[in-house]
Amino acid sequence: MNLKSLLAIAACALALTASAQTSAPKREFRGAWIQCVNGQFKGMDAKKMKSVLTAQLNALQKAGINAIIFQIRAEADALYQSSYEPWSRYLTGVQGKSPQWDPLQWMIDECHKRNMELHAWINPYRARTKGTTALSPIHPYNKHPELFLEYEGQLYFNPGLPENRKYICKIIRDIITRYDVDALHMDDYFYPYPTPGKEFPDDLAFAEYGRGYANKGDWRRNNVNVLIKEIHETVRECKPWVKFGVSPFGIYRNQKNDPNGSATNGLQNYDDLYADVLMWVNNGWVDYNIPQLYWEIGHKAADYDTLIRWWAKHSSARPLFIGQDIHRTVKFPDPNNQLQHQLPAKMKLQRSLPTVQGSCQWYSAAILENPGNYSTLLEKHYHRYPALVPTSPFMDDKAPGKVKKVRMIWTYQGPVLFWTAPKAKTEMDKAIQYVVYRFDNKEKVNLNDPSKIVAITRNTFIELPYEDGKVKYQYVVTALDRLHNESKAVKKKVKL
Questions:
Q1: pLDDT at 231
Q2: How far apart are CA 445 and CA 447, in angstroms?
Q3: How many Å is the Cα radius of gyration of the chain?
Q4: DSSP H/E element including 72
Q5: Which listed site, 145, 237, 333, 464, has its alpha carbon 20 to 30 Å from 482?
């Protein structure tokens, strides 16, 4: 038996005897990224791509995932119907060629069917990747080439031009107003990752729009800050229930450059990507933050343990989730137990830090691959019980009204619990989902116990498991609004 198999077996054994410290909370962000730039969908017809995505979504649902971050704009293109940008080559292989369906709308429907959030993931600045050899005639570069810069084989909207910020916000407004997405998401691509000895060619923009900045780095950071602030305002203006989140590179600053930085030695958001993530968090310009902590515990330059504790301490003004690399997590053994990989240790650490409210898995297809029994461990242990998405009280803290007319009705399929949606005056008050709990007849009702959740659903009914008609249970139904605020409970006793 090889080391990888031993690690997987040991991890499973540990999971079965894990301490209460790693027991699943009732609310936890459990996300996964689905990317297109790896080419996994390129050249597929609609039927095949839907089949691939369905398999991923089913596996993710089984593993307890409650939010999908779906890449829809990789290079000023679209995996959705757009009047401004061409269809993505990551669909048909040819930029601008219609796939004859709308992947974003389909994903929204499929995720909501599975009671998952859908976060629309865009790259703000990148306009051409290295593998793109031909741009569609309607690509924005072909209309206004003066607004773009080339760097290391890729094309970027010049971040220093105010026109580009307006354009990016126009694209976001179009997405948010036409699609029922739950969030708008951006990853770590702000100013491009630097190549040593190769300067990003924005001297002309700095000369024209430098606004008195003596230091180009400070000016670049301000350009990104302004964009983030304007995107946040745009999203709020369009739909006040849609969240705006980012997933930055895992190091903000190293201690050697900033006493408040982390004890790490790597590329830095602040200095190298000109992304002042803490400013966005502390000013409330983002609604969640998912730093990409893709390293292992014990990494010499960027120790996972060091970084998660640093972010937990410094990024608590807005919900904090942790980006996890599935393959890297199972590749390395736990430093304190060489016979198991690092998922148990990472989960224990994550759930021990009060300001960390969940994690996001990179990448979704790896859940199907199940390396090191990773997805099995999520399904059987860490995500054994359902979890509600964390609330966003800074956006809305008012719960919807409670459900009405909870009753059991016999149908030809057996007993069904029905209820009526509460009335709502505004979209923010509307019930979108329902949580159904089950307790024994004499058991004290505790809505903080996720093991009692039998369903999270968008329907106003659930089928009940009939036994012999002699056992009495208490069913409790609550309503959730778009931001997952939970209503007061309504109880119904039934005999099954």
A1: 98
A2: 6
A3: 24
A4: strand 67-73
A5: 464
- Per the rule left: phi > 0, alpha: psi between -120 and 50, beta: everything else, 77 is beta
β-bridge pairing 414-420 and 404-411: antiparallel
Q: Round to whole Å and give the CA distance between 407 and 416.
A: 8
Structure tokens at 278: 């803490």
Kindly report, residue by residue over 116-131, the tens digit of the pLDDT. Answer: 999 999 999 999 999 9
Q: Is residue 420 within 8 Å of residue 352, measured between CB atoms?
A: no
- C-alpha span between 460 and 481 (Å, rounded): 14
pLDDT > 70 fraction of the chain, expressed in percent and rounded: 96
Task: Count Cβ neighbours within 10 Å for each residue of 65-75 and write b for 16 or more, e otherwise.
Answer: bbbbbbbbbbb
Quote the DSSP letter at residue 354: T
Same fold, 3-382 and 404-495: no
pTM, two decimals, is 0.95
Residue in the structure block whose two tokens are 């201690």: 255
CATH number for region 404-495: 2.60.40.10
Work out whether the CA dihedral 442, 444, 446, 447 comes out positive or negative. Answer: positive
CA-closest candidate to residue 175, choices 114, 224, 239: 239
Concatenate the DSSP letters of all residues of 171-190 into one string.
HHHHHHHHS--SEEEE-S-S
Other beta carbons within 10 Å of 23: 14
Amino acid at 43: G
The angle subtended at Cα 134 by Cα 131 and Cα 135, nearest 5°, is 110
DSSP letter (8 states) at residue 378: I
436 burial (CB, 10 Å; 0-12 / 13-18 / 19+) is buried
pLDDT of residue 413: 86
CA distance 107 to 109: 5
Give the whole-angstrom CA distance, residue 109 versus residue 127.
28
* 313-358 confidence digits (pLDDT tens): 999 999 999 999 999 999 999 999 999 999 999 999 999 999 999 9
> Both tokens of residue 134?
């031909």
Tokens representing residue 273 in the block:
């990507």
- Quick: pLDDT tens for 391-401: 999 999 999 99
Is residue 383's pLDDT more than 70?
yes
Q: Specify the pairing of strand 356-362 against strand 320-325.
A: parallel
What residues does each domain of the chain span? 3-382, 404-495
Residue 16 confidence (pLDDT) above 80: no
Tell me which CATH homologous superfamily contains domain 3-382. Glycosidases (3.20.20.80)
- In whole angstroms, what is the distance from residue 434 CA to residue 485 CA? 11
